[in-house]
Amino acid sequence: MEKTDTPENTTTAENSRCSAVIVNFNSGELLLECLAAVYASTLPVEVILVDNASTDGSAARARKAFPQLHLIQNTSNSGFAAAANQGLRAAGSEYLLLLNPDCILQPDTLEAMLKSLEDDPRAGMAGCRILNPDGSEQRGCRRNLPTLGSGLRKAAGVSNGRSGVDLHQQPLPDQPRFVEAISGAFMLARRAAVEEVGLLDEQYFLHCEDLDWCRRFHDAGWKILFAPRVEIVHHQGACSKATPVRVSWHKHRGMVRYYRKFLAGRNGLLLSAFVIPGIYARFVLLAMTAGIKRLGGGR
Questions:
Q1: Which of 22, 140, 161, 271 has a Cα-to-Cα distance from 48 of 20 to 30 A?
Q2: H-type helices in the chain, by residue range?
């Protein structure tokens, strides 16, 4: 269930070309920093915050600090994709932004990204260069879509930045260019493209729904743009640091769904025999490693 709060002075689609949808789950003070940065944009933004039953008081603090906020409060954690879709349905602008609550924009970020999309009508979605707090490029902001080969390499533990999905180790292009996928931390899409492609697949609880969306944009004939000269900072993991094993489980489940949904076909035997068991084995190994580290840290 949800409760919606839409103040009269909210910036709406009537006076904004961009709606920012932010899904929150215990993001703490970073959520306030994120919202302050969005509201400091050089263009008006409709901001829709969907709170997935946070227990840290972050949603209440956000509502108090930004009374113009459109807040949707869920009484249970419905997962990222389902909550993001709630926000997308409530949004009314020409451009729709999915933004993580631990991302910090620059004042001209949205203006520059809207221009990038407007300059190429083939692009249905665009992402920017996402930086870690130390200034390094974050893995995942430009990447290839998963293939059977990359899945086999990951299952075998031999995937790397050059042979796998992520492209952050490759030279940074000088100009915007098309890529197969971008990060779900910042996804700016045309409403027309979203209406054609559809919303996020809610069968993903957390992780891989962004890859699924990128794949569906491609299948519908839309291009995905990566803008290398527009940069934001992403404090990755702010919502998941308290439950890393649970988050890892949902991530690996998401991988399995993606492979089954898009790559089964003639590769079903290989997926069943190698890739999917390898994904679950990888989760077990990571969970055991995390448990050992936790035990070691408690000594």
A1: 140
A2: 29-39, 58-65, 80-90, 109-119, 148-156, 191-197, 209-219, 244-263, 268-270, 276-297
